[in-house]
């Protein structure tokens, strides 16, 4: 029998990546597909040539199969129900972001996971990229000196249709979780406060607020700012955001599309005597080996953690800190004041 007996819940658009990954693993078998719309689960089975059980509710699938692992790829409003059901059937859970549509629900899910002794880890595919690992190496290695200021720009204009169009805060809740998680990953620390202005810009086709400007303070004087809109047409940034990190000796850039690099003050320069100190360009070192990237890279890490009996990098007890950035920003926008995290 395969080591991982997987039930996949939510057979929408995103589920294809998860199904493909599970099929490719020799130690895994998909034992059931679940969707409240039976036809979606059946269509997923037909598309990928799966002969597993088809269900409309998770509890039945877990009772009637030998499942020990659940993939939660439902919409955010349903994640709590799925995760709690899976944990109560002694299954580990690997789920899509964001954990939940409220911080209270997310905390409840983390508590349940900790109590159960099972692992619940969250997909944060945008930190599993060769260039962001190389960019982090620039920041960690001291190439630009002591980090003081990190900025991210995120401007794209997708017309999704579906649940995002009706959300109150589609950008902050469904997308910025990625950029905030990337910032926490890059800085290697957690923020202490946030001030956020959230709004729906002119021309937006979203019902909710599709744009935001946020200022996060990290310890040690580090500031991270985020400017983003999901209703920005023309001259798009990368979906992985456009990054600028300013340190005491220079600046590191990652535009989200090309290799990161830095420009640092030439060491023998007496910078204080120059109007603009001369700098030298340094290319990023790619040291992350031949690992898989994006969803597959994050799933590789989650499965490695399950096999090695350790927490995954994006385990819920850590991921909730990225959630706290999202909900702190939402709270700040609501009250119009800086919020402590
Ligand atoms: N990591 C990423 O880059 C990324 C990208 C896109 C979406 N996502 C996330 O993936 C998740 C799914 O997004 P999507 O675009 O596939 O959405 P989708 O609407 O295409 O699919 C969701 C599926 O869940 C099913 N569903 C809803 N309620 C259910 C329930 N109670 N039980 C079983 N099935 C249920 C729906 O019928 C639908 O088939 C969301 O959390 C989203 O934020 C992540």
> How many strands, what sense, and barrel or not for the largest sheet?
9 strands, mixed
The low-confidence runs, each spanning 5 or more residues with pLDDT under 50, are none
The fourth-level CATH homologous superfamily of the largest domain is Dihydrodipicolinate Reductase, domain 2
Order of helices and strands, N to C?
EHEHEHEHEHEHEHHEEEEEEEHHE
Tally the structural domains.
Answer: 2
Going by helix content, strand content and strand pairing, the class is alpha/beta
Which CATH C-level class of the largest domain is it? Alpha Beta
CATH architecture term of the largest domain: 2-Layer Sandwich
Radius of gyration (CA) equals: 21 Å
- Chemical compounds bound to the protein: nicotinamide-adenine-dinucleotide
Judging from the principal axes of the Cα atoms, what is the shape?
A: globular
Mean of pLDDT: 96
List keywords for this structure.
341 residues, alpha/beta, Rossmann fold, Dihydrodipicolinate Reductase, domain 2, nine-stranded mixed sheet, six-stranded parallel sheet, 35% helix, 24% strand, binds nicotinamide-adenine-dinucleotide
